[in-house]
Specification:
This protein is an alpha+beta fold. Helix content is 29%, strand content 24%. Helix 5 (174-184) links the parallel strand 10 (166-168) and strand 11 (190-194). Helix 1 packs parallel to helix 2, helix 1 (26-38) packs parallel to helix 6 (202-209) and helix 7 runs parallel beside helix 11. It binds ligand SPQ.
Length: 438
């Protein structure tokens, strides 16, 4: 069987109960390797996500001469930082796999190096738009060559003198913001970005954790080039994007009562909680605390009947990765759910609007895609065979739909679940989802 031929089979029904802990946050794990590598001193990371995406970032820095120990079985990583100017020219192309975060953030970092680098990706990443970073980075003085369509591979020519710019971002994207801020570390003067709406702020928080001054005024973030990063300790919380499958699963499956431990609840990521609550979900945040500059809680979720809503557009960037599974919640809700202002979903690992609509329709749900969103009428989920289009979040979303299906759901092309959530099948089946992989 080819790697991508992995099929999930989900028997209909069941409920989710008990206590679980999902793996570490993907966004924070990537950034811990990047900043830890460029810091002075030794950075200790715990809870690192050993998903394929973050392992690509880790390997890229090893390929540039950084000594990184681990990850151990429980996610301990020790990074012997080389300082902002200590990376070495890799002898191979940097393979970013399926990971948009790696490719876009590294575009900024690589623009400031003294050497040339080529960054490649898998077939999905090779279709994703990179002009959103290469265009503003070019304004800073970077030299990056992409395909004519603006897609990977990216060839970054080193030895350029970068200058700080102000950039008004045309779309709400943490990857674009982060890419420019990371290039800004190497630029002369101030780099500032204004975002049209708040996006995840892990880069800003982590830069501060490494002792770098970052000024935030409203939606504008600024930093001065030429500083240095000082090693620190990072405790990576569990990923709210991975938790989202269980938040929705326990909300839609009668009899569910589940606690998800140590979940990152950074306010730039909690749109999924707000949207589910607007739909009538029963979510409780317990034991709220702060861990290494990021807020964390245990989340208790119990079954509750959901109702369809018009999703407030302000919540879209705060829940951007959770929409595939929120569409499953909408399919189980009474009435209509309307999403607008989410055209970014069309340029993720798959076109998440179209692919989810196709799969939901195959399951017997009335789902109508629109250019920037979708309209879903709650209904009865039937059995179906759907494809994830090699998109991890689609594969896991249809797995969760099985909890409310009347017949078995088969999901094809599920191997990419390992990019963000290794161990999903074991953890989900332990909590009550009747899922097998093979
Ligand atoms: O890394 P990648 O492939 O882009 O991953 C995704 C995901 O669903 O896991 C998006 F497809 O998450 C992005 C997220 O959508 C991770 C991210 C980050 O860590 O900065 C930011 C978001 O992307 P964007 O394009 O809105 O900046």
């Amino acid at each position: 069987m080819s790697h991508s031929a992995l099929r999930f089979t989900v028997q209909a029904g069941g409920s989710l109960t008990g206590r679980i802990r999902v793996p570490g946050d993907k966004s924070i794990s990537h950034r811990s390797i990047m900043l830890g590598s460029l810091a002075e001193g030794t950075t200790q990371v715990s809870g690192f996500l050993q998903g394929e995406d973050c392992l690509c970032t880790l390997q890229a820095f090893r390929n540039m001469g950084v000594h990184i120990e681990g990850p151990s079985a429980n996610g301990e990583v020790t990074i012997h930082g080389v300082g902002l100017h200590g990376l070495k020219k890799p002898t191979v192309d940097l393979d970013m796999g399926n990971s948009g975060t790696s490719m876009r953030l590294m575009s900024g970092l690589m623009s400031g190096q003294a050497f040339d680098v080529t960054m490649t990706g898998d077939s999905s990443l090779s279709k994703r738009p990179m002009k959103r970073v290469t265009v503003p980075l070019a304004q800073m003085g970077a030299k990056i060559v992409a395909t004519e369509a603006g897609t990977p591979p990216l060839h970054v020519q080193g030895g350029q003198k970068l200058k700080g710019i102000h950039y008004d971002m045309p779309m709400a994207s943490a990857q674009v913001k982060s890419s420019l801020l990371l290039a800004g570390l190497y630029a002369q003067g101030e780099t500032s970005v204004t975002e049209p709406a708040p996006t995840r702020d892990h880069t800003e928080r982590m830069l501060r954790g490494f002792g770098y001054e970052v000024i935030v005024e409203g939606n504008t973030i600024r930093l001065q080039g030429g500083g240095k990063l000082m090693a620190c300790t990072i405790d990576v919380p569990s990923d709210i994007s991975s938790s989202a499958f269980f938040l929705v699963g326990a909300s839609i499956a009668p009899g569910s009562d589940l606690i998800i431990e140590h979940v990152g609840i950074n306010p730039t990521r909690t749109g999924v909680i707000d949207i589910l609550r607007l739909m009538g979900a029963n979510l409780e945040l317990l034991n709220q605390r702060e861990v290494g500059g990021e807020p964390v809680a245990d989340i208790r979720v119990r079954y509750a009947p959901l109702k369809g809503i018009r999703i407030p557009e302000a919540l879209v960037p705060l829940a951007i990765d959770e929409f595939p599974v929120l569409f499953v919640a909408a399919a189980c809700a009474e009435g209509e759910t309307i999403l607008t202002g989410a055209e970014e979903l069309r340029v993720k690992e798959s076109d998440r609007i179209q692919v989810m609509a196709d799969g939901l329709i195959a399951c017997g749900i009335d789902a109508r895609p629109t250019p920037d969103g979708i309209i879903i009428q709650g209904g009865k989920i039937g059995g179906a065979t759907v494809t994830s289009h090699n998109d991890h979040r689609i594969a896991m979303s249809f797995s969760i739909a099985g909890l409310r299906a009347s017949e078995t759901i088969y999901i094809d092309d599920c191997a990419t679940v390992n990019t963000s959530f290794p161990g999903f099948v074991q953890l989900a089946s332990g909590a009550g989802l009747q899922i097998t992989a093979g």
